[in-house]
Automatic annotation (TrEMBL):
BP-aspect Gene Ontology terms: phenylalanyl-tRNA aminoacylation
GO molecular function, one term: transferase activity
Cofactor(s), names only, from the UniProt record: Mg(2+)
Major subcellular site: cytoplasm
Residues annotated to bind Mg(2+): 254
Protein's recorded name: Phenylalanine--tRNA ligase alpha subunit
Documented EC number(s): 6.1.1.20
Keywords from the UniProt entry: Aminoacyl-tRNA synthetase, ATP-binding, Coiled coil, Cytoplasm, Ligase, Magnesium, Metal-binding, Nucleotide-binding, Protein biosynthesis
Residue stretches making up the Aminoacyl-transfer RNA synthetases class-II family profile domain: 125-317
CC annotations in GO: cytoplasm
Organism: Anaerosacchariphilus polymeriproducens
């Protein structure tokens, strides 16, 4: 038994010293120390040894195992160190090379103006509400007092998915959805993306953004509308800004108007930007049509309200004196980082 153990130890040492990689070293460990290894086989044969010799043989077996394990571990560490050294030689990093700079993003001018407008109306007690961009025809047109034969429903202007579903052409449907809840009074702002079948040019895009507002309460008059929008214009364009309302027609408001503000480039004296008029058209507005209130379940005898809507891109172009709407969507960081 002693001779057999000595032979196993010598054989293990030779194979360990001759091993070339970690996989071969692991195979050697399994061959000698595994469940079916040579040393394990010897241990299974201990039952055949006399009780007097068993302790002595047991000590020799343990010492043989320790010798093999120590040599295996020492060889493994040496191989790993050699591999690490070789890998470091092959993966040298040239610290003199210039580092790659991380380019930080920049808030889009549309986002800046959107947040500014929302902040102004939130300060007046308005709630910002969002709604679906894929909308029912009822909410986009019919509930806004726009009958089936109205030109705005022509497929030339609106993206229809089917007869009853379309891509919203305004954010007014959000107002209808809020009115239907019947939770009065209402002071809300509805910003969001809208879609119309327009050709792409310096002032048009098939996808753009609108910001619409709605107030419903008792005893709301056109004076409330004028005062609210005049204050909004002053906060957005400057305290010297004046407003002018011109009669207009919108199907969902009566009376209706378009609002101009004094040109913020020339102060109203007339320039190329305002085409010499001193005024710039900024939004449409009016008193909510009684039919719109009735279709949403609101008593038009007790409640009245006003609504307004503006194009976000239009405000952005005016505020930053940009002359081409397409610049907002080209994602050129040289342009966006100016704002």
């Amino acid at each position: 038994m002693k001779e057999r153990l000595n032979r196993i130890q010598e054989e293990a040492i030779k194979k360990i010293q001759a091993s070339k990689d970690l996989n071969e070293l692991n195979d050697i460990r399994i061959h000698f120390l595994g469940k079916k290894g040579e040393l394990t086989t010897v241990l299974k044969g201990m039952k055949d040894i006399s009780p007097e010799e068993r302790p002595v043989v047991g000590q020799i077996v343990n010492k043989t195992r320790e010798t093999i394990e120590e040599l295996l571990e020492e060889t493994r560490l040496q191989m790993e160190a050699a591999q690490r050294e070789e890998r470091m030689k092959n993966e040298v990093i040239d610290v003199t090379l210039p580092a790659k700079k991380n380019k930080l993003g920049h808030r889009h001018p549309n986002t800046i103006v959107m947040e500014e407008v929302e902040g102004i109306f939130i300060g007046m007690g308005y709630e910002v509400v969002e709604g679906p961009e894929v909308e029912y025809d009822y909410y986009n047109f019919e509930a806004l007092n726009i009958p089936a034969d109205h030109p705005a429903k022509d497929e030339q202007d609106t993206f229809y998915i089917n007869k009853n579903i379309l891509l919203r052409s305004q954010t007014s449907p959000v107002q209808v959805r809020v009115m239907e809840k019947g939770e009065l009074p209402i002071r809300m702002l509805a910003p969001g993306r809208v879609f119309r079948s327009d050709e792409v040019d310096a002032t048009h895009s098939p996808s753009f953004h609108q910001i619409e507002g709605l107030v419903i309460d008792k005893n709301i008059t056109f004076a409330d509308l004028k005062g609210t929008l005049a204050e909004f214009a002053k906060q957005l364009f400057g305290p010297e800004t004046k407003v002018k309302f011109r009669p207009h027609h919108f199907q969902f408001t009566e009376p209706s108007a378009e609002m101009d503000v004094t040109c913020f480039k020339c102060g109203g004296s007339g320039c190329r930007f305002c085409k010499g008029s001193g005024w710039v058209e900024i939004l449409g507005c009016g008193m909510v049509h009684p039919n719109v209130l009735k279709m949403s379940g609101i008593d038009s005898e007790k409640y009245s309200g006003f609504a307004f809507g503006m194009g976000l891109e239009r405000i952005t172009l005016f505020k930053y004196e940009i002359d081409d709407m397409r610049l907002l969507y080209e994602n050129d960081n040289r342009f966006l980082s100016q704002f």
